[in-house]
Specification:
Order of helices and strands: HHEEEE
Number of helices: 2
Strand order of the largest sheet: 1-2-3-4
Structural class: alpha+beta
Distance between the termini: 27 Å
Radius of gyration: 15 Å
Number of strands: 4
Low-confidence stretches: none
Length: 84
């Protein structure tokens, strides 16, 4: 692996970390507790979908999607697809 590849991988990791931190700051307390329990299994934050009535947090582990609603309820079989 050359230095350019290493630099690119480090930049990607930093970008992913800062995106995760940005998402994390937008979660409420109940969502943070629920997300922490999913982090234990290897899930990672990928999106927040806000509407007038709810805020859904999306987490991904390989090809498995999980969501957390504003009350902190975890759904490991949500009825939604992730665009690749």
């Amino acid at each position: 692996m050359n230095n350019n590849d290493k630099d690119s991988q480090q930049a990607e990791r930093r970008n992913t970390l800062s995106n995760t931190q940005m998402l994390w700051t937008n979660l409420n307390s109940a969502q943070k507790v629920a997300a922490s329990s999913l982090f234990y299994f290897g899930f990672r934050l990928i999106f927040i979908r806000k509407s007038d009535i709810d805020q859904i947090v999306g987490l991904l582990l390989e090809d498995k999607l999980a969501t957390i609603n504003a009350e902190g309820d975890i759904n490991t079989r949500p009825d939604m697809c992730i665009r690749g």
